[in-house]
């Protein structure tokens, strides 16, 4: 189970809507089992409607920033503008952070946010608990 403050839940929805019809992406930083920060990042994929890609300098700069702020847990967020919140084969193949929680906001059939752990291509759903 992962605790997600309502404000961050809203921020993810807004980011996904703003990026539509492209996939939105970014990182979430957390402390003591609670995600506390949202870092929206550019999707630099050549086909941003179907996949997301974070430029390595953006990724490393953000991770450094998170460490400086004492944030340990990490969430990796992206949206699926035309499909469900289920990791695609590409998402699974490029899930390089076994400690991270992968968040996907899907727009089909309705707007919904799901979380997963992806370790060595093994996908495990994680329950999201939205907190005030
Ligand atoms: Zn995806």
CATH fold-type name:
Cytidine Deaminase, domain 2
Secondary structural class:
alpha/beta
Gross morphology is globular
Strand order of the largest sheet: 3-2-4-5-6-7
Major beta sheet summary: 6 strands, mixed
- Mean pLDDT equals 96
Tell me what the structure shows.
This protein has one domain: Cytidine Deaminase, domain 2 (3-Layer(aba) Sandwich). It contains 3 helices and 8 strands. It starts with a strand and ends with a strand. With 132 residues, it is an alpha/beta fold. 24% of the residues lie in helices and 38% in strands. Strands 3-2-4-5-6-7 form a 6-stranded mixed β-sheet, sandwiched between helices. A two-stranded parallel sheet has the order 1-8. α3 links the parallel β4 and β5. The structure holds zinc ion (ZN). Zinc ion (ZN) binds next to β4. Zinc ion binds next to β4.
């Amino acid at each position: 189970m992962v605790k997600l403050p309502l404000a961050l839940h809203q921020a993810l929805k807004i980011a996904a809507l703003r990026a539509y019809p492209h996939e939105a992406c970014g990182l979430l930083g957390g402390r003591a089992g609670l995600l506390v920060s949202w870092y929206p990042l550019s999707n630099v994929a050549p086909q941003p409607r179907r996949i997301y890609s974070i430029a390595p300098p953006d990724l490393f700069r953000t991770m450094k920033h998170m460490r400086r702020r004492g944030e340990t847990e990490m969430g990796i967020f992206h949206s699926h503008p035309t499909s469900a919140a289920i990791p695609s084969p590409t998402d699974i193949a490029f899930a390089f952070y076994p400690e991270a929680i992968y968040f996907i906001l899907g727009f089909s059939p309705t707007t919904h946010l799901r979380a997963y752990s992806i370790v060595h291509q093994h996908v495990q759903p994680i329950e999201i608990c939205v907190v005030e």
